[in-house]
Design goal:
This protein is α/β, with parallel strands linked by helices and about 180 residues long. The protein is built from 8 helices and 5 strands. The protein has a single domain, classed as P-loop containing nucleotide triphosphate hydrolases (Rossmann fold). The protein is about 55% helix and about 15% strand. Bound molecules: shikimate-3-phosphate.
Length: about 180
């Protein structure tokens, strides 16, 4: 079903609250790919929650762990990655997105994301903010161009529900496969 590039891997990128994990799990099931959530994998490996890693070791250390895991794991094929929102910050990670599979950006405005995110305790970059939308807007401003630049396909999810996002991705993959 997938094109030759995508038989390597599929990557979902985007901000916190963009439904990468919700959609990714279903997409992996539909395409019979191994599902990898980078945050879950790091939590399993370290036996620590992401929020605790940030608190105890700092963001930089978390980024190192994230990149070390991602670069190594993406060498295998046939996987669907739901990536942490900050995956785009590292040049090494961006190289992986470019070279090891097809990348879908689940795009959404900071307003939409703020409406979707109810619990910020699991998200250390948001947990100390009294204005969620403003915080998301600042992060979005720093990253949005990178997300766009490294996406093979951009799905605007503002007016969609997760099943529709899933259907849109499957549709894109089928169409691009039919072209080959
Ligand atoms: C982060 C996003 C989180 C997690 C960490 C940092 C970010 O993942 O990796 O809290 O920098 O955007 P989700 O995008 O899955 O929430």
């Amino acid at each position: 079903m997938l094109t030759s590039k995508s038989t390597e891997n599929l990557f979902l990128i985007g901000m916190m609250g963009s439904w990468k994990s919700t959609v990714g799990r279903k997409l992996a099931e539909a395409l019979k790919l191994e599902f990898i959530d980078t945050d879950d994998a790091i939590e399993e490996m370290t036996e620590m929650k992401v929020a605790d890693i940030f608190r105890e070791f700092g963001e930089e250390k978390f980024r190192e762990m994230e990149t070390a895991f991602f670069v190594e794991k993406a060498k295998q094929k046939g996987q669907l990655f739901s990536t942490g929102g900050g995956i785009i910050l590292s040049a090494e990670n961006r190289k992986v997105l470019q070279e090891n599979g097809i990348t879908f950006l689940l795009d959404a405005t900071p307003q939409t994301l703020a409406n979707r995110i109810h619990n910020t305790t699991k998200r250390p970059l948001l947990s100390d903010s009294d204005n969620l939308e403003e915080r998301l807007q600042n992060i979005w401003n720093d990253r949005h161009q990178l997300y766009i630049d490294y996406a093979d396909h951009v799905i605007n999810t503002d007016n969609l529900e997760p099943p529709q996002v899933l259907a849109e991705i499957l549709n894109i993959l089928e169409v691009s496969n039919a072209d080959h």
